[in-house]
Amino acid sequence: MASSVISSSPFVCKSPAKKDLGVSSFRKASQISIHGCQRKSISRKIVSVMAPQRSSSTSGSVKTGMTMTEKILAKAAEKSQVVPGDNIWVNVDVLMTHDVCGPGAFGIFKREFGDNAKVVLNLAINILSLLAFSLFVIVTSTLKVWDSEKIVVIPDHYIFTSDKRANRNVDIMREHCREQNIKYFYDITDLGDFRANPDYKGVCHVALAQEGHCRPGEVLLGTDSHTCTAGAFGQFATGIGNTDAGFVLGTGKILLKVPPTMRFILDGEMPSYLQAKDLILQIIGEISVAGATYKTMEFSGTTIESLTMEERMTLCNMVVEAGGKNGVIPPDATTFNYVENRTSVPFQPVYSDANARYNHIFVADYRFDVSKLEPVVAKPHSPDNRALARECKDVKIDRVYIGSCTGGKTEDFMAAAKLFHAAGKQVKVPTFLVPATQKVWMDVYALPVPGAGGKTCAQIFEEAGCDTPTSPSCGACLGGPADTYARLNEPQVCVSTTNRNFPGRMGHKEGQIYLASPYTAAASALTGHVTDPREFLQ
Amino acid sequence: MAASSLQSLNPTFSQTLASPNTSPSFRSPFLRFNSSFTPKPLSTRSSSSLIARSAAEPQERKTFHGLCYVVGDNIDTDQIIPAEFLTLVPSNPDEYEKLGSYALIGLPASYKDRFVQPGEMKTKYSIIIGGENFGCGSSREHAPVCLGAAGAKAVVAQSYARIFFRNSVATGEVYPLDSEVRVCDECKTGDVATVELREGDSVLINHTTGKEYKLKPIGDAGPVIDAGGIFAYARKAGMIPSAAA
């Protein structure tokens, strides 16, 4: 049971041991990338290793303990027991889509579930008479999604742009939602003033949480890789493509392979200058961009318990950057408080069994003493290209971007404002602020920042010389159409609170993106170089 | 006229029906089309038989033959299809073709040979050779779709990111295959190669270097691919009713 790969370094590098340890991936053999371990220098102070608890009873009559994820999937598949590797049909509680993937997903849904023969026949009749055209409408309108109240359509990616195709995609979604009587469609029609749109929300993952669609124990799928954000609520949440989404639209089910769970235990008091973004960058830097491929990343420990919901969302948000299938955090009072204030839909929280089997392929948990961690960044061009912020202080930057599902929530802006206020200085580079949702935007303008004598974020940002907070959307996190606000159109260096920094991510192929926490981003804006926030926070 | 009023109701559908000679909105070789769809003609480039588009009989052997395009590790979805092109809807035939023309356009300038030549719509490379974690990043299905739309038939990579792999299987746009060694280090862009898929014994043959590489069996994804994609698999499994006659 003890690991045979424990080296002299206190950090254990994983070797792909027996590939068929009862875990056959959706493809044949999982490849665990260990090059990340080998090429990084591991901070010896931080990580220690412990062998996982193994289930001691293996007799057939005793049920094997399951992890949270296994339990959620078992329940959704109406099974009493699942093990990693099982391919199961799972009932979906919520399906989310947005303006980029929605048209394609609905297109596939119609093609696959619509009655082609009937449509051809009716087209023929259609040419002949207008009355038959009405018949056609009636015939196709009989095609219904599986549940019009379990689908949430959230335009957020390419909204405030003059790109005609982008605008058309929102119109296409409006048509689908109207036809299918979709209950939750956060529509926008007036692009000139986001506030003139009462239904519009903004970034899908933040909107899902704020509107009460994230609930413990449920299965949430979305046509976006950062759907894993919702795992913060103790549910199974993962991103899927248009074809899978088209299937779910018609059936409310999806074929999933049960993933094994990697456990990350974070203990210790969170230092005042550290944020959840630093934690996840630390972890991704540890295990690499493929370190959690096909696996669940389960986060627990005293530090996790101390995090707010928004910080937990930031943590789970970047699980996909490590290749993870889903991220999950055990729900607690913090979770219930948040959820119950936003929805009255009942939910059933789920917890890992004490004798659940972890890390079927790896042989150790990952433990972190958070009190010893320092602010980090991910240097170009990979989310696992981790470096200490203070070791990058000679890197001159051209701009700072604070926004996205990862770093554009209310608390992210509060943190940046707090640092600006403590510093009392002006930014040295253009600093772009993109609130994730309408609600975040309103908070930025309405909520007083603690310790700032009643000033709001917006006031502090203005005094520091930042750009005016802009209309909420995904914005330039992923580049977008050419006229997207804050898009990287030149090969500049940008410190960003977003989630990816692969070449061309924010627009220009030679753009250099440093991923960072809101504190680090704010500190960097003040100096014009990548800067450790302790310069201003201690 | 009638077609245009049909179009306003469902733009993607009407385009497919109005021009039956264009490629169907989804070139998946596995989806069973009814007679109103015209299967895409076999590429004149390849000599050996490609996946039979009608998928009428079970596939025991599949062969892809053509030129290789070699990329490195961690080729993410933004490099495969930059986000600015995501306004194109893959289930719309014209936009599907346009997506193909932008395949791998996000690769840095260090890639001197472009996957699709400027001004062209299709690629001359049938087989993409990748390193580790191919397709990482976004869940955008546009990624495998654009590769297939451009004319790629298969990807042979050391490892895949899961959503990309899953989307490749679900759409049938490219065949995602695992190599056992770092083929990306041993093949060069422009090498002539053949990929032969057989029961439990698939290979990549590089005719230019003369080397042969074992490929891993497709594993759990096999039944889904063999059935013809997720919808066909579900129909076979009785999860959804069979398509109307």
TrEMBL record, chain A:
<feature type="domain" description="Aconitase/3-isopropylmalate dehydratase large subunit alpha/beta/alpha">
    <location>
        <begin position="87"/>
        <end position="387"/>
    </location>
</feature>
<keyword id="KW-0411">Iron-sulfur</keyword>
<feature type="domain" description="Aconitase/3-isopropylmalate dehydratase large subunit alpha/beta/alpha">
    <location>
        <begin position="390"/>
        <end position="528"/>
    </location>
</feature>
<dbReference type="Pfam" id="PF00330">
    <property type="entry name" value="Aconitase"/>
</dbReference>
<keyword id="KW-0479">Metal-binding</keyword>
<keyword id="KW-0456">Lyase</keyword>
<feature type="transmembrane region" description="Helical">
    <location>
        <begin position="119"/>
        <end position="139"/>
    </location>
</feature>
<dbReference type="InterPro" id="IPR036008">
    <property type="entry name" value="Aconitase_4Fe-4S_dom"/>
</dbReference>
<dbReference type="InterPro" id="IPR015931">
    <property type="entry name" value="Acnase/IPM_dHydase_lsu_aba_1/3"/>
</dbReference>
<dbReference type="InterPro" id="IPR001030">
    <property type="entry name" value="Acoase/IPM_deHydtase_lsu_aba"/>
</dbReference>
<keyword id="KW-0472">Membrane</keyword>
<dbReference type="InterPro" id="IPR033941">
    <property type="entry name" value="IPMI_cat"/>
</dbReference>
<keyword id="KW-1133">Transmembrane helix</keyword>
<protein>
    <recommendedName>
        <fullName>Aconitase/3-isopropylmalate dehydratase large subunit alpha/beta/alpha domain-containing protein</fullName>
    </recommendedName>
</protein>
<keyword id="KW-0004">4Fe-4S</keyword>
<keyword id="KW-0812">Transmembrane</keyword>
<keyword id="KW-0408">Iron</keyword>
<dbReference type="InterPro" id="IPR050067">
    <property type="entry name" value="IPM_dehydratase_rel_enz"/>
</dbReference>
Automatic annotation (TrEMBL), chain B:
<comment type="similarity">
    <text>Belongs to the LeuD family. LeuD type 2 subfamily.</text>
</comment>
<dbReference type="InterPro" id="IPR033940">
    <property type="entry name" value="IPMI_Swivel"/>
</dbReference>
<feature type="domain" description="Aconitase A/isopropylmalate dehydratase small subunit swivel">
    <location>
        <begin position="126"/>
        <end position="172"/>
    </location>
</feature>
<dbReference type="GO" id="GO:0003861">
    <property type="term" value="F:3-isopropylmalate dehydratase activity"/>
</dbReference>
<dbReference type="GO" id="GO:0008652">
    <property type="term" value="P:amino acid biosynthetic process"/>
</dbReference>
<feature type="region of interest" description="Disordered">
    <location>
        <begin position="1"/>
        <end position="23"/>
    </location>
</feature>
<dbReference type="Pfam" id="PF00694">
    <property type="entry name" value="Aconitase_C"/>
</dbReference>
<dbReference type="InterPro" id="IPR000573">
    <property type="entry name" value="AconitaseA/IPMdHydase_ssu_swvl"/>
</dbReference>
<dbReference type="InterPro" id="IPR011827">
    <property type="entry name" value="LeuD_type2/HacB/DmdB"/>
</dbReference>
<protein>
    <recommendedName>
        <fullName>3-isopropylmalate dehydratase</fullName>
        <ecNumber>4.2.1.33</ecNumber>
    </recommendedName>
</protein>
<dbReference type="InterPro" id="IPR015928">
    <property type="entry name" value="Aconitase/3IPM_dehydase_swvl"/>
</dbReference>
<dbReference type="InterPro" id="IPR050075">
    <property type="entry name" value="LeuD"/>
</dbReference>
<dbReference type="GO" id="GO:0009570">
    <property type="term" value="C:chloroplast stroma"/>
</dbReference>
<comment type="pathway">
    <text>Amino-acid biosynthesis; L-leucine biosynthesis; L-leucine from 3-methyl-2-oxobutanoate: step 2/4.</text>
</comment>
<keyword id="KW-0028">Amino-acid biosynthesis</keyword>
<comment type="subunit">
    <text>Heterodimer of the large LEUC/IIL1 subunit and the small LEUD (SSU1, SSU2 or SSU3) subunits.</text>
</comment>
<keyword id="KW-0456">Lyase</keyword>
<dbReference type="GO" id="GO:0019761">
    <property type="term" value="P:glucosinolate biosynthetic process"/>
</dbReference>
